[in-house]
Amino acid sequence: MNNSFDQEVQQLYQKLIDAWNKRDAEGMAGLFTDQGVQIGFDGSKLIGKKEILSHLVPIFEEHPTPPFIKKVKNVRRLGNETAILHAIAGMIPPGKKEIDPSMNAHQTLVAVKNDDAWCIELFQNTPAQFHGRPALVEEMTEELMKDGDSSSE
């Protein structure tokens, strides 16, 4: 994943993570296309910058949202101006020092290039609970603690 294409898509994802970690609803919503979709950890589906923004503002104002620790697993080109990124993510709740495994997630981002700028067409944050397979939860948590990153690259 060292080519420019992959790096640009990873930078877009990093901007999204940074906006979440800074609790910046406008910064997050602004990364999406006009009809971009965000599917949250709780299954909520939001379409468009305005709806995403109106959903995020109260979350950041009313809840102590933990920052993401993430690791990009792969970036795959789907065309000249489209890509899909898969990452794993965890969160360290406020006042804690360890990742809470119940908050682990698979994150999928579909990016499109519009007028020489990358935007998010879809971001999905899916819980990674691996029901009945606690070893997989532990494995993901250990990978994030060892190799995960929460800061700008």
Question: Which tags fit this structure?
Answer:
NTF2-like_dom_sf, Steroid_delta5-4_isomerase, single chain, 6 strands, SnoaL-like, alpha+beta, globular, SnoaL-like domain-containing protein, Nuclear Transport Factor 2, Chain: A
Q: In a nutshell, what does this entry contain?
A:
With 153 residues, the protein is an alpha+beta fold.
Describe the overall structure.
The chain is α+β, with helices and mostly antiparallel strands. The chain has one domain: Roll (Nuclear Transport Factor 2, Chain: A), CATH 3.10.450. Helix content is 33%, strand content 35%. It has 4 helices and 6 strands; from the N terminus they run H-H-E-E-H-E-E-E-E-H. It has a 6-stranded mixed β-sheet, sandwiched between helices. Strand 5 and strand 6 form a beta hairpin. It is globular. The two termini are 14 Å apart. Residues 9-120 form the SnoaL-like domain.
Element layout with pairings:
Blueprint: H1 4-21, H2 25-29, E1 32-39, E2 45-47, H3 49-62, E3 68-79, E4 82-91, E5 105-114, E6 117-127, H4 134-147
Parallel strand pairs: 1-6
Antiparallel strand pairs: 1-2, 3-4, 4-5, 5-6
Beta-strand content estimate: 35-45%
Q: How large, in whole angstroms, is the Cα Rg?
A: 15 Å
- Determine the number of helices (DSSP H or I, runs of at least 4 residues): 4
Helix content class: 25-40%
Pfam family, one: SnoaL_3
Protein name: SnoaL-like domain-containing protein
InterPro entries: NTF2-like_dom_sf, SnoaL-like, Steroid_delta5-4_isomerase
